[in-house]
Amino acid sequence: MRRGMNDTTGRKNMQQLIELRWIAALGQFATILVVHFGFDIPLPLKPMLWLLGGLVIFNAISVLRLRTHPEVTNAELLVAVLVDVAMLTGQLYLSGGATNPFVFLYLLQVTLAAVLLEAWSTWTIVAITGACFAGLALFGRPLALPLDHDRGLWSPYIQGMLLCFALNAALLVVFISRISANLRARDARLADLRQRAAEEEHIVRMGLLASGAAHELGTPLATLSVILGDWAHLPSFTSEPDMLQEIEEMQAQVLRCKSIVSGILLSAGEARGDSPSETTMRTFLDNLVDEWKVTRSVSSVDYRNRFGDDLRIVSDSAIKQMVCNVLDNALEASPTWVGLEAARDDNLLRLTVTDRGPGFAPGILQRLGTPYQSTKGRPGGGLGLFLVVNVARTLGGSVDAGNRADGGAFVTVTLPLAAITLDEEEEGIDAD
């Protein structure tokens, strides 16, 4: 993935070089005509125009190459800059050599190389441009220009230097700003990748901790279940209806703990059945809400299933736990009322959980999904939404949260149906 990010940046930088080369071609053509016909300074038009045509052809080939092979390496960028240096050297050789005021365009090439290329490539460009400058001083063809530097801005040489300075400054500001923006965008993407890698590592550590704890809790829970079963048959308890009812409640809570432990192991990839559980979307959501209401002390649940036409899906414990986490957070903020709406938006499943609590603090919304960001003030808080965001991201979905205008908060989980539904091919295999 990181390679793809670097390739994307290289492609954008090559696009900047291509745009700059088009501008250079137009500028050279206009300058040749103005100098030759406007200032009556004789130039070898034919070879200069041939060089200009070669630059245009090379740029057209570069455009086609970029469309067919979007990946751009440092070596390709180096070759592109070297071609630009060679074309500039050829034009300067034919139009005055080192005495041409546009010789300072070499600085533009060096600056671009410093921004675009690796260090060794940049120093290669520095050495080559320096050698080209020296070669022009030794072998260039001087222009027949009068020595009238004392005329100031009226001197053609001073005018050429002024124009060269303006071109260098304008092109550097425009293109270096764009290239720097590309590099900043690449750095931002790399930082996001590092953040995701750290979050995934954090999830792995929590999964290992939860799995280990679940294994350790399994034995004492089984022991408690056996003891409570024995107590339920003792005469001293069977003769006391109140005591027997309390034992039955304790047994129910132990069974719930064992169910939670089994769910943790199931989510960790252990104790999984031979085949995934198949159901339908509406059945999955209805059963999830019914089970959640039974195991929680909630006064009112406003559940609205507006999914529409039913679909066959694979029942995933991770999705179930994700939705339950959102509902649990809403219940803690709003013990008397929780809302859940399921809807279908084209090929997406949207689950919106609402509450009538105090809402999210602005800082929490800005760092949505970051671990240990919570307003509950207890150790380990904020892991619920952290897990929700990462499960949704793993399935190709997203999580959005905010505060309602009439009070309370909402959390919307959006998942692509393709990640959980059974396609026709899978259904055919199952039918066989």
Plain-language structure description:
By secondary structure, this protein is α+β, with helices and mostly antiparallel strands. The protein has helices at 2-38, 45-68, 74-94, 106-116, 119-139, 156-231, 235-238, 241-267, 281-295, 317-333, 362-366, 383-394, 424-431, and strands spanning 277-280, 301-306, 312-315, 338-345, 348-355, 398-403, 409-416. The protein contains 13 helices and 7 strands. The strands form 2 sheets. Strands 2-4-5-7-6 form a 5-stranded mixed beta sheet, covered by helices on one side. Strands 1-3 form a two-stranded antiparallel ribbon. A hairpin with a 2-residue loop joins strand 4 (338-345) and strand 5.
Measured by DSSP, the beta-strand proportion falls in 5-15%
Q: Spell the H/E element sequence.
A: HHHHHHHHEHEEHEEHHEEH
**Average pLDDT:** 77
| Helical residue percent band | 55-70%
Class based on secondary structure composition and strand pairing: alpha+beta
Poorly predicted parts: 1-6, 269-275, 377-381, 424-432
